[in-house]
């Protein structure tokens, strides 16, 4: 097991960005950038023994800053969407950045807290022969969020091809905390085309349906008899174009799935498989929800090795509190008191099936 550090580039203001490579004895490699604590590459052998990088991403700092739709980035202090860019805590209303706009260019929604965590350079340190720790302090009031928040994210690679992402955060004021990673997976390899033939299973019997702005209505909807039923494994493309109002609202899958039996302990929420590569991924998390996004808004951006990220060429499984939780009292509570620690963990495990 080894961890190495190398320069990746510089920010416009001259700050250095580093790339860390974790490698285990099976030849699995994980690359993480100090820019956005970004998971840039996961490389492992496919069923033919060829190395496959299964993450969408970019080759330069400039591309991450100019083209990114959060590929592999850490997201916070409050991931996903906050309706109308406002929420209330103890009778006080907080208005936060509205970085999602309507067709007229008016800000309507706060998405991923304006990208604060995703485009900042994090402090980084190799903590062991298998792990790297990233730390960042978010100033009080930045983008409207209350409290100075200290955050640590640790990436640890195991010998069983298990990648652990551990999150810790604490704020000086009562505030929403919802941290995740926005990796785009393509288990056939990042340049292999769309992900519609790849198989997905989600241990989720409900979703949080959304309105036309992708804000949850506050209801929980059973997946029974709908395109959202992934309790039995099926290809991502099987029902993605079916006549379903929820799919039409979001251009395909881009919904929070409610993890069955979530209780704060590490629980399996997803399984994915590519027959083309033989690569299998299992996802475990301590969080109550997972956002399944099928890359509906990828539009051919140039990524690694000059390859374009075409429509639905990657999928995301973002472990999280439900979207708009600060405004939905019936959802699991993501408001943390001053000094109360947020702790979560997500684990991705990989294996390769032979012919």
Give a brief rundown of this model.
With 355 residues, the chain is mainly beta. It is 3% helix and 42% strand.
Topology overview:
Blueprint: E1 2-10, E2 16-23, E3 29-33, E4 38-45, E5 51-53, H1 61-66, E6 74-75, E7 81-83, E8 86-89, E9 92-95, E10 100-101, E11 107-111, E12 123-128, E13 131-138, E14 149-157, E15 162-171, E16 175-176, E17 180-181, E18 199-202, E19 204-207, E20 221-222, E21 234-235, H2 245-250, E22 254-259, E23 267-273, E24 279-285, E25 289-293, E26 301-302, E27 308-309, E28 316-320, E29 335-336, E30 342-352
Antiparallel strand pairs: 1-2, 2-3, 3-4, 4-5, 6-17, 7-11, 8-9, 10-11, 12-13, 13-14, 14-15, 15-30, 16-29, 18-21, 18-23, 19-20, 19-22, 22-25, 23-24, 24-30, 25-28, 26-27
């Amino acid at each position: 097991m080894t961890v190495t550090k190398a320069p990746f580039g510089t920010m416009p203001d001259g700050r250095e960005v580093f790339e860390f490579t974790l490698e285990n004895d099976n030849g699995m490699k994980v690359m993480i950038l100090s820019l956005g604590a970004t998971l840039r590459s996961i490389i492992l052998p496919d069923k033919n023994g060829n190395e496959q990088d299964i993450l969408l991403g970019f080759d330069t700092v400039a591309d991450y800053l100019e083209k990114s739709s959060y590929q592999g980035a850490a997201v916070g202090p409050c991931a996903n969407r906050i309706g109308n860019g406002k929420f209330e805590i103890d009778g006080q209303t907080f208005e936060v950045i509205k970085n999602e706009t309507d067709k007229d260019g008016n800000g309507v929604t706060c998405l991923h807290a304006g990208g604060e965590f995703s485009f900042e350079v994090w402090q980084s340190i190799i903590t062991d022969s298998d792990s790297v720790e990233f730390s960042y302090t978010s100033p009080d009031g930045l983008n409207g969020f209350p409290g100075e928040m200290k955050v640590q994210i640790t990436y640890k690679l195991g010998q069983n091809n298990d990648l652990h992402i551990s999150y810790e955060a604490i704020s000086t004021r009562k505030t929403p905390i919802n941290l995740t990673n926005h990796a785009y997976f393509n288990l056939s390899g990042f340049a292999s085309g769309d992900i519609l033939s790849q198989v997905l299973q989600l241990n989720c019997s409900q979703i949080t349906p959304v309105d036309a702005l992708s804000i949850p209505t506050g209801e929980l909807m059973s997946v029974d008899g709908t395109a959202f039923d992934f309790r039995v494994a099926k290809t991502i493309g099987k029902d993605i174009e079916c006549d379903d109002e929820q799919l039409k609202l979001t251009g395909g899958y881009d919904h929070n799935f409610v993890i069955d039996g979530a209780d704060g302990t590490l629980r399996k929420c997803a399984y994915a498989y590519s027959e083309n590569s033989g690569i299998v991924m299992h996802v475990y998390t301590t969080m109550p929800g997972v956002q399944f996004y099928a890359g509906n808004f990828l539009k051919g951006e140039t990524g690694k090795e000059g390859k374009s990220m075409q429509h639905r060429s990657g999928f995301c499984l973002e472990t999280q509190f439900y979207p708009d939780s600060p405004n939905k009292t019936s959802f699991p509570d993501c408001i943390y008191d001053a000094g109360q620690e947020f702790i979560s963990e997500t684990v991705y495990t990989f294996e390769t099936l032979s012919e």
